[in-house]
UniProtKB/TrEMBL annotation:
InterPro entries for this protein: Amidase/PGRP_sf, Amidase_domain, NAMLAA_amidase_2
N-acetylmuramoyl-L-alanine amidase domain segment(s): 19-167
Keyword line: Cell wall biogenesis/degradation, Cytoplasm, Hydrolase, Metal-binding, Zinc
Family, per entry: Belongs to the N-acetylmuramoyl-L-alanine amidase 2 family.
CDD domains linked to this entry: PGRP
Lineage: Bacteria, Pseudomonadati, Pseudomonadota, Betaproteobacteria, Neisseriales
Ranges in coiled-coil conformation: none
Catalysed reaction, written as an equation: Hydrolyzes the link between N-acetylmuramoyl residues and L-amino acid residues in certain cell-wall glycopeptides
Protein name: 1,6-anhydro-N-acetylmuramyl-L-alanine amidase AmpD
Length: 189
């Protein structure tokens, strides 16, 4: 069964964990970009609820080294795909999640305005799971039916001086083979 995004921007296959870290998109701006990230908290450790706590402003500043700085951040993503393929949604797609930070794509700054952010549970140091790719492809297909997505890129593409995710283990060929209509022409940059 295919996944669906409703008119309010919620995916029927996702567990909803509402984040306050979002706001309205600018009027008249289409959602054209899918941005893929990776995240693990603590770094390199999977499972647990630390990412959910980060995106909902409930992270314990004493839970791990460096968390004191994370506790003051106000960040989110629309979706989080766990290592087992579980899909969580923090922000409806019609709203602007705070995932891209200082960013630019095709000479347009502020990629949060035009993008949907998907975090994969992982890091730059390990391959992603097959089930995560399957979930990402299903999600992207559902998103294309609801929004005028034109390209899928990595966080590294929109913030190359700051970010490296989704990292060297991310299989772009697999994504482009499944979603050729979203392949970004990086040579045009």
């Amino acid at each position: 069964m295919s996944w669906q995004i409703d008119e309010a921007g919620w995916c029927d296959a996702a567990t909803v964990v509402p984040s306050p870290n979002c706001d309205a998109r600018p009027d008249g701006i289409g959602i054209s970009l899918l941005v893929v990230h990776n995240i693990s908290l603590p770094a390199g450790r999977f499972r647990g609820d630390h990412v959910l706590r980060l995106f909902t402003n409930r992270i314990d500043p004493l839970a791990a080294p460096g968390y004191d700085a994370l506790a003051t951040l106000r960040v989110s993503a629309h979706f989080f795909i766990r290592r087992n393929g579980e899909l969580l949604q923090f922000v409806p797609t019609v709203a602007r999640a705070w995932h891209a930070g200082v960013s630019m794509w095709r000479d347009r700054p502020g990629c949060n305005d035009v993008s949907i952010g998907v975090e994969l549970e992982g890091s730059d140091l390990v391959p992603f799971e097959d089930i995560q790719y399957d979930a990402l492809i299903r999600l992207a297909s559902a998103l294309r039916l609801r929004h005028p997505l034109r390209e899928v890129v990595g966080h590294c593409d929109i913030a190359p001086l700051r970010k490296t995710d989704p990292g060297p283990y991310f299989d772009w060929q697999r994504i482009h083979a499944a979603l050729p209509q979203l392949k970004a022409d990086l040579l045009a940059e």
